[in-house]
Design brief:
The chain is α/β, with parallel strands linked by helices. It is built from 29 helices and 22 strands.
């Protein structure tokens, strides 16, 4: 017995030392447990605590009831205590008055029987009084007769009831009191013997439960604080409500966006502002998503989504976003996701020539660039309509934003619709996963150039008209339209007015496009610009073809007769083609042994036929000798050229002096 007491004394001194050191470690990441006792339970707690100091921090509170609540509240407010460990009526009081969990040291049947055994062994034949919290044990009343033990029981719920219970048991002849620490203290004051009811095993069990609960509570609190910190720094407003519509949490951004007065009743103001959304979500059991609402004089994007926990609705969360902020983000995203090649390389100063007709084009283009109105460029193929379109874009306020060019005659009708307007995922067989933005969306804040607008299928003309009128596009398979800010420049080589009269082109679309019209003159009508333009083009490609200065002058001298007399049915595109051919065959290395110029430059033969017509040959004879000199190639001309070129479209295009797109269109017609 003596050795046991010495060991117990040593363990207790170690416990007190370890317990005290845990109190001085406020920065530990371990959860905190407060040990509350006003009597003998504290010594057992100090004995058990050293085994758990690696898992938790412990705080000793030697107060009870209201005083304990006051002392503990400081720990709770500081975030130091996650769980309180207590017993009896003191623990019940704390559980009703604290916001943190309270773990009770529970007395089981074994503890009671063990205490009774100790009492009867120590004081044989003594009348025993048992003081229990809240209720007495009827099983013990029946068992006491069988054990031949004089046992009387009393229940208590407060410290005054403990004092009264001990006094009543003493009056009934009980000389030994079994109960909690307060009952033992009152018994000693009354001159009675006592046995402490709580066992070391019960305290250890309570420690295990409290430490684990504190760990879980600390994790939950850490997540809650982290989430609240994140939400508090969001620019979007966030508010959470329980299933009864009571406000649970709100961040500062919500108050600012809704214009709420923080000095007034915030929950009431917030409920008035978003109450209709909560009721709608509750009544229809459907979320409200991305709805535009006018609240407090501001356009807001609002969402109201139910909160589901284990499949059951437990509340709702409302988010609010400033519509202007969303627009800025949308513009930023569209800008960052644009392909880098969608830029206009040419300017209006790149139009080479000083003719009156070309000066008129420059003047009209600059006037059109100053506004966002739709521009219609008309003129024969190869006259430089796309160059003028790029020049208008670069002279406008949209320069630096995307320039998107699309040829309306280059794709089948189904592909044109997908390319221009985009599609959602699964809109059709083979649709790109995740969907695809259309060219109108890609050109947002910039310019879209629609070449060969006269070739657009009739079914798509109405969709294009809607885009021009409403400034929004509807993707294939989409349920809502996407607003776009885009300037449209259209181009055609055909007479749209005649197409309208024929019923091929929509009149309303024509009048929408024909706001600012610029007609580009063919090269034959500004013949004075040809030589200057040829020198510019040849200088630009001299490095590509390895032309020396002498070779460049020889090429220009060789082609001078064509500059003055050729009809140029292919316009600037044909001139570029001819210059490239001459640069290859008339360079320093290949020019001197050339014999058959007629085979390589059939344009000279056409030029002589044209000149003959000028010097007296009738128009009919001229047309019969060289149809290409007076009119554009026909489908029959294309067929003959393809037969002579063995089906090679590039060679046929060069022979006719037209581009491959024009060749394809003539074949289609």
């Amino acid at each position: 017995m003596k050795r046991f007491m010495e060991r117990f004394s040593y363990e207790r001194s170690v416990a007190v030392s370890t317990f005290t050191s845990s109190l001085t470690d406020p920065h530990s990441g371990r959860p905190g447990v407060a040990l509350v006792s006003i009597s003998r339970l504290q010594s057992l707690c100090e004995t058990v605590a050293p085994r758990y100091t690696g898992r938790a921090r412990f705080f000793s509170v030697r107060e009870g009831y209201g005083a304990a609540v006051t002392a503990l509240q400081a720990y709770v407010d500081a975030g130091s205590v996650d769980v309180v460990l207590a017993a009896g009526s003191n623990g019940a009081y704390l559980r009703d008055n604290l916001s943190v969990p309270v773990v009770m040291v529970k007395v089981n049947g074994f503890d009671v029987l063990s205490a009774i055994t100790r009492a009867t062994t120590t004081w044989p034949g003594a009348q025993i009084g048992l003081v229990l919290h809240e209720t007495i044990s009827h099983e013990l009343a029946d068992l006491s007769a069988w054990l031949n033990v004089g046992l009387k029981q009393r229940a208590y719920r407060s410290i005054d009831e403990v004092r009264l219970a001990v006094a009543n048991l003493a009056a009934e002849g009980c000389s030994v009191i079994i109960g909690p620490g307060m009952a033992c203290d009152f018994a000693q004051h009354a001159g009675l013997e006592s046995v402490f009811l709580y066992s070391l095993g019960a305290v250890e069990e309570a420690f295990e439960r409290s430490v684990e609960l504190a760990r879980v509570s600390r994790q939950k609190e850490s997540k809650r604080v982290r989430l609240n910190t994140i939400v508090a720094h969001l620019r979007d407003g966030v508010a959470a409500f329980d299933d009864a519509g009571q406000l649970e949490a709100v961040n500062p951004a919500m108050l600012d966006l809704l214009g709420l007065d923080r000095e007034q009743d915030v929950p009431a103001q917030l409920t008035r502002a978003v109450g209709p959304l909560l009721r709608e979500t509750l009544e229809h059991d459907m979320p409200v998503e991305e709805r535009i609402e006018q609240i407090g004089g501001r356009a807001l994007i609002v969402n109201c989504v139910p909160i589901l926990e284990q499949g059951l609705r437990s509340g709702s969360v409302v988010t609010v976003q400033d519509a202007l902020v969303a627009q800025r983000i949308d513009r930023s995203l569209r800008t960052s996701q644009r392909p880098k090649h969608l830029v206009a390389r040419h300017h209006l100063d790149d139009l080479v020539g000083s003719s009156v007709a070309l000066e008129r084009v420059r003047r009209l283009a600059r006037a059109g660039a100053a506004h966002d109105a739709t521009v219609l460029l008309s003129g024969e193929s190869g006259t430089g309509k796309e160059l003028v379109a790029q020049g208008i874009h670069n002279a406008s306020r949209r320069r630096g934003n995307p320039f998107v060019a699309f040829n309306c005659a280059a794709l089948p009708e189904g592909l044109i619709e997908s390319e221009l307007f985009g599609h959602e995922e699964g809109a059709f067989t083979g649709a790109r996963r995740g969907g695809k933005p259309g060219l109108f969306e890609i050109a947002h804040t910039g310019t879209i150039f629609l070449d060969e607008i006269g070739e657009m299928p009739a079914a798509l003309q109405s969709r294009l008209l809607r885009v021009l009128q409403e400034r929004e596009v509807m993707k294939l398979g989409a349920g809502r339209a996407t607003p776009v800010d885009v300037r449209v420049i259209a181009a055609t080589h055909r007479d749209l007015h005649a197409l309208v009269e024929q019923g091929v082109f929509r009149a309303d679309l024509y009048f929408r496009l024909n706001l600012l019209q610029i007609e580009l003159p063919p090269l034959r009508e500004r013949r004075g610009d040809v030589a200057q333009l040829a020198r510019h083009l040849l200088n630009r490609s001299a490095l590509q073809y390895g032309l020396s200065g002498a070779a460049l002058e020889r090429v220009l001298a060789f082609l001078t007769p064509l500059f003055e007399h050729y009809a140029w049915p292919g316009n600037v595109r044909e001139l570029e083609n001819l210059l490239a051919r001459a640069a290859i065959y008339l360079s320093d290395s290949a020019g001197e042994g050339w014999q058959d110029l007629q085979a390589v430059f059939p344009e000279f033969g056409r030029m002589r036929q044209t000149a003959a017509g000028v010097h007296g040959v009738t128009a009919d004879a001229h047309a019969a000798s060289d149809p290409s000199a007076r009119r554009s190639p026909t489908r029959e001309d294309v067929i003959r050229a393809l037969e002579q070129a063995g089906g090679n479209r590039a060679a046929a295009s060069r022979a006719l002096g037209i581009g491959r797109t024009t060749l394809w269109r003539l074949m289609k017609d």
